[in-house]
Amino acid sequence: MAQLQMTELEVYQGQFGEFTIDSSDRRGVIIYRGGLLVAALSFAIATGLVLWQGSDPFILNVLTLLYFVFWVGLGVSLFTIHIYLKPLHQALQAFWAIGGITSLMFAVKSSEPLALYIYSHPLTIFGVGFGFAALTGIFFKEAFCFDRLETKLLTPLIPVLLLGHLTGFLSIQWEQILLGAWAFLFVVFAIRKVIQPVPPDIGDKSVFEYLHSQHLRNNASRLSTPKN
């Protein structure tokens, strides 16, 4: 117990000063990684079902459930991820929300299973695709921060697959190959995150504190400036 407390209170040197990592920081990272793992596993299971029995009506209905499990897991991760730039963080959250809301609208509107409806109507990607754009944002962030091979591959792979289906550029065989690669690399990424040390995912807390103080200072400056 004493050793755990010492670890939690370990002092780190950041760009703008010293900082410590407490239990709430670690809990946030665990939740972030748990959301990613749920999203990855549900996506991988759905992909396996599509490639195995994608035309089966029961399977198609199961895919709807798995998609929304994926969406919830992704949302949990997006609300607990550590990103220095707040506008970027909020943009990814907004993308996630737009993707989920439009997916729900399509699921309610259509008499077909959601996956079949989206596949048969490529223009729906302009709505549903926002959710996958948010996921791509996570992959880009992880590739930039940790130089992970799988996220370097996933960052361009997702837009290539979605845009390829939207434009009809990709054949069914290539869509299946890219979808399978996406699912495999996503699971690899999620598993590697689980075993990664916690502190790197928290990042430099002194940067967060500095940006927050700058934001407060700018707000105070605007309020104190007399209006003409």
UniProtKB/TrEMBL annotation:
Superkingdom of the source species: Bacteria
Record InterPro entries: DUF2301 (IPR019275)
Residue ranges of coiled coil: none
Range of residues in the leader sequence: none
Membrane-traversing stretches: 30-52, 58-79, 91-108, 114-140, 152-171, 177-195
UniProtKB keywords: Membrane, Transmembrane, Transmembrane helix
Pfam families cross-referenced by the UniProt entry: DUF2301
Name of the protein described by the UniProt record: DUF2301 domain-containing membrane protein
Organism this protein belongs to: Phormidesmis priestleyi ULC007
Species lineage: Bacteria, Bacillati, Cyanobacteriota, Cyanophyceae, Leptolyngbyales
